[in-house]
Amino acid sequence: MEDMDQPTGLSRKRSREDMSSISSQNNSHQPSSTSATSDNTDSEMKEPPTSRPKSQAPNITGFNLEAIFHPKFENENQNDQQIRKDMITKVSSQQGYLEVTLKHSGSLMLWSGGQKFYSKNSTSNLFTAVGEILLLQHFARAWGTTEEDIPFVRQKVQECSDYIEQHRLCLSFEVVSTVLGHHGDIPNRNYLMLIAVADKNQERFFSTAELTAFAQKFRLPHNDAWLYASKESVEQLFELYDTTKETGMASSVALWLDNSADGGIVASMYPHAVFQGEILEGLVIRYVPYRLKDGVAQVDTLEEMKRLGDASKEIWKQVPPEKTLNLSPTGNVWNLDLSAISEDESAFAEKVHAALDAFHGTQKRQTTITSIKDLGVDILGIAKEIIGSNNANGESVRIAKLIQQLVDLNIKMSFKVIQETSSAAVGEKATRYIAIIHIHHDESFQKYYRKTKDTDAMSLFRGFSIELMNFVPDEKLVKRQESSASIEAALDHVHLNQKVSSSEEKLMLKMKFLPYMVRTFICRNGLSKLQVSKTAFEEYALGQLVKWKISEEGINKWMPFFKGYAKYCQNLQVTSNKYLHTYNEFSKLFQSGEFQVEDSGNGTFRGVILMVGLKKEELAALSNYFAKELSCSFQKTDCSSLTRDDFVRSLQRSEGGLICTANITDSMKKFKKLCKDFQDDVYTVLVGCSESELESSLIESQAASNEVRKTLGIAKGLRKTKSQLHMISKASLSTTMEGLKDQEDVVNAIKSLRDAGAPKEEDKRFGLLVFFPAIPGQGKSSLCGGLSRENLDISADRKLIIREGDKVQGKYYRQIEKEIISTPACVFIADKNVPPPSWHTISDLCLKSRSIAVAVVPDVLKDTIVGTGLDKCSYPLSLHFLAVCILRVLQRPSSTHNGKLDISCKEACMVVVKFYCFYRHKTIDHFNFSDRQFGTHNGKVIKIPFFKDRNTVDMDLPPDLYSTLCEAVQLQTLEDQNKQVYDSKKNDMENNLRSCILKYEAHLQSLVAPIEESMSVFQEKLKSIVGSIRDLQPCEIDCLSKMNPSEKNPRIKLASLDIDESVVRMALESIQKDNAKVRFYLNKREQFRKNDPDNIGKARFIKNTHCTFAHTSRNNQKQLRETFDHLIGESVEVHIVSFYYAPDSAALGLEFPSLNTLGSNISFPKPQNNFHHVTIFCGAKVMAHMSNDLPERCEKSEAELVILKEPIKVKGTFSFWHS
User: Fold this and answer.
1) CA 207 to CA 212: how far, in whole Å?
2) Half-sphere exposure for 229 (CA within 13 Å, toward CB)
3) Fewer CB near the terminus (10 Å): N or C of the chain?
């Protein structure tokens, strides 16, 4: 089909996003992207002061809803069985019926008519572009047959668009495609499904009846719906789900729904099995109440659905599922084959946007990001003005109150302001401003819901966009009233339900099927567990199956599959957005009998074998033979490359041992250092290393006398090793397995190693790791001091281990790791302050040791704000708590504390304040450890009485004490932000704190609960938790755990500032316009743009353009997390100031005009590399990091430099890259 003329409806702004933006779309509707039109935040809740003069700033006097989607499902964590009972009760008493729909898996897109397409937190990006094309193609399929029909199809698109705009509707679609990342299965066709219609006037969503009627009016694709109107059919529905939960596929599920639904069926134009495929995510079951008339329930709602069902059959006849478009990779928007053009990922986004540009022409909608600061608009200030105004219209006031409520609840949110320009008339442009409200944390939806429940407050929508308006309220009110009336007329007899009660809203179930869950929640979301080890992945998979209450038969079926999958993926680079290719290939191999992994059991060797000879090349056959006989999983040939993780993995369940070969003269320094912590698990095998053998070999090779002496001395030292030693003669070496198995010293060594390294009978019970998210002075050592096996009722086959942080020599977590791993099922008490930067370490320990984390926290937490304006920060601990902790430290007599933190410590008070500041930007929601995953399980929480009265934290502190504490926290914050703080200032602050705390010593002491009470509560609650896990096997205990697959701790490779590749391209285009040499350089290399950016064997352009701030080669994991954790997702302004290029590499030079993030004003460090840059091109076999040398090469005339006359301003976003 041809593009007949310029459109009058849909459009977008060109945004050159490449396919790398899809990689973050894992288990949510819409991923975040790093482009200018991405989901990254633009302005934090704490808005910066405006920079535009008020006379030039838009005169914003109100807000309008622009795009909205359903709030978070409110009863996802409620009891499934109780909801079922309530549904059965209501249906059997004829108060309503159940409606069942299928869950399609894709990406969310919202359409407010015209050219206004939105993803969940953005607009004008690759996701909306793909969705817009699929919507246009749907209209072509629904209303057209040939090219001649295109004008009529255009007319239908415009009618639908006009209707949406006139009635202030917002349509939500599930965009199901092969090109936007993988979900449960690769769909058979690209399509979209209308899943919600929002009436912005009435702040509500259409019922299924209304949505279906509206969809049929324009032949939009609504979902299938099955209706259940009797107790018997509802009970049958639940029974059918329970019996097919583990095996249900789309065709079979649809068939039994057809056969059991007694209230009618409304058929979709897009049957799931035909369009998406057989892998079905699940069912959505809603209770729909009948209307009441004179207090009597009416069943005409159900009759309406039956009428709609009849209409759907007629549409099905006119647009049967087998009807297809003649798609082409070179087509226009009406017939462009998205799947075909996506095969070239580097050009996919370009082709999509080019097709839309050609379609829209000069009428396209232009959108640009503009910061609130540059716009000169204070959204929070406007909200306050609206609330206090008598002239603002109702919708503006309700939105303003919602914003104010979010601020009051300390909910982290961001505003992304979009300036939209569209054609209003010939030669004229109309400008609007859209603010997209991004809620950072899912738990905030529940927090807002709890606060506003049973009130008339506006719902906290997802995909929440508002228009910043300047309008006359009365005129708007008229339009709203007219549109409400016209909607009712347009939908004829379909009843417009008013908002139902909160109890009715809760009667909804999402019921998923196992074939989908194992793909998405285990094989995709578990990829990070594979980075830890195969064992971690297997335990994660088992935990999920048990959590889902899968039958023993189901577990026995799937666990061998997951073990094989773990082995298959071990040496592959599997990404979450493309994981299904790997999954499908493995499935074929597994079904053919490959990768049928058996448990290696107790026959597997555990530990590290260092095999040393004069030449390690001669040891290869022997190493392979040992690995085969001892079932070792790992072999290495460079002992200096071994890490602590290698040693730990060699001891873990089902991993097997490690063999490392080495030359006798190799440096053993690093290896020996590691051996200190693993002495009992390291075994040395010396091959041909007796004194006589070495002398003979060295003389034969004509080695120098000093080399002979040196080698003999090394061998002598190795023979004195404290680890188990085995000597094998050089004569026993053979290049064949047959030759080795008959050598007596080889056989004896293997037998001895098998016995020594054989694991003891595996203890599969879970242990406990008790830790304290605390600050000094909280009282943890007092609590731990009273613990014993007896008062915790710990059985004789478990150990109680208490390790005080100040008594452990060396790095605490490194020292305790091996102790926990080597003492399975123990109760380990980590008597140490564990602030947020160390929580991931606790998770890693739990993962490696099969332990359940138990967090010990004060029973009264309070979100506390310290500072004002841009310096305002939140803390989850009250200033009362901080004051008492400082007092307790000052009450410690001199030289009585193992860590020397007592009255004699010169900076004792500020040390406590420093620990308090580790919790900066955290809230009490972060202390919901029972909802936070540690290892493979959610944590448990023990709340300890701290204050006598729980209301203490709501009481006022003495003014001078309050102000002194605030000043101390703010001073520490400045130091943490690397701002200059003079020692004299810190000394004065320390003295002020001491005098003020001691001044109120009696008052503060009177607030605190007796330590005996705290100890008693701690012991009793810990005893209860110990009892709850006693003698329980993993499968049983996992049933008690709620796993959250989104909480992961993969290994960080680098801290990056991501800059969208499309922005980098535009910068290069700008540079080459004025420089012929650069233009020639880039044009000559354009042929390499299609090459895989990850294939270093070929010349290539870098797609994931970024500036490296810190790399794991120079920082450990703790340093990376402590420095950058709080910056992830934050955006900063970047100036491109230069372009370096050489024959084999090129990079853009960067400067940072400010070392504070946009909006939130959080300070950040400079990149650790001297040359701050973005690599854009690498030649064949040239690594990206080699671009660091470009400035030096430029000085040697080996590279060229272009300095820009004016910097190009772009935006970057912090992220972690994982290895």
Assistant:
1) 8
2) 15
3) C
Give a three-class secondary structure readout of 786-818: CCCCCCCCCCCCCCEEEEEHHHCCCCHHHHHHH
Of 123, 98, 99, 95, nearest to 109 (Cα)?
123
When mean pLDDT is compared across 744-748, 777-781, 849-853, 1187-1191, the lowest value belongs to 849-853
Contact 1092, 578 (CB under 8 A): no
Q: At what angle do helices 208-218 and 150-166 cross, to 10 degrees?
A: 150
Taking a C-beta distance cutoff of 8 angstroms, is the pair 470, 58 a contact? yes
- pLDDT per position as a tens digit, 420-479: 887 655 556 788 889 999 888 888 888 888 888 888 889 888 888 999 987 544 444 434
The whole-angstrom separation of Cα 418 and Cα 121 is 11
CA 441 and chain centroid, separation: 11
Token representation of residue 542 = 């088992």
Spatial contact of 978 and 1165, defined as CB atoms under 8 Å apart: yes
In angstroms, the CA 1093 to CA 1111 distance is: 20
C-alpha 116/C-alpha 161 separation (Å) is 10
961 C-beta neighbours (distance < 10 Å), count: 20
d(CA 1142, CA 221): 54
- Tokens matching residue 91: 């249906």
The Cα–Cα gap between 1059 and 1174 comes to 8
Q: What contacts 1067, CB < 8 A, 6 or more positions away?
A: 1136, 1148, 1208, 1210
Which amino acid would we find at residue 512? K
pLDDT at 139: 94
DSSP 729-747: -GGG--SSHHHHHT-HHHH
CB under 8 Å to 627, separation ≥6 — which residues?
635, 659
Extended beta strands in 124-187, E state: 169-176
* DSSP one-letter string for 837-875: GGHHHHHHHHHHHTEEEEEEEES----EEES-GGG-EEE
3-state helix, strand, coil in the chain (%, to 5): 45, 20, 35
Q: List, in order, residues 6 or more apart from 292 with CB less than 8 Å away.
A: 298
CA within 13 Å, CB half, 378:
15
Determine how many CB atoms are found less than 10 A away from the CB of residue 710. 14
Distance CA 164, CA 199 (A): 9
By C-alpha distance, which of 324, 333, 188 is closest to 250?
188
pLDDT tens digits, one per residue of 1057-1106: 999 988 999 999 999 998 999 999 999 999 898 888 877 778 899 989 99
Q: Which pair of structure tokens corresponds to residue 1005?
A: 């002491």
**86: nearest Cα among 352, 286, 339:** 286
Kind and range of the H or E run holding 830? strand 827-833
- pLDDT reported for residue 95: 86
* Distance separating alpha carbons of residues 1192 and 1185, to the nearest angstrom: 14
CB 855 within 8 A of CB 773: yes
Convert 393-441 into a string of H (helix), E (strand) and C (coil).
CHHHHHHHHHHHHHHHCCCCEEEEEEEEEEEEECCEEEEEEEEEEEECC
Residues 6+ apart with CB under 8 A from 1085: 1099, 1101, 1177
Q: C-alpha angle with apex 860: 855 to 863, nearest 5 degrees? A: 95
Give the N- to C-terminal CA distance of the chain in Å, as an integer. 46
* Cα angle, residue 469 at apex, residues 465 and 470 outer, rounded to 5°: 175
Question: Shortest CA distance to 360 belongs to which of 649, 177, 136?
Answer: 136
- The residue ranges of DSSP E strands in 290-403, in sequence order, are 292-293, 296-297, 366-370
Please state the length of the chain.
Answer: 1219
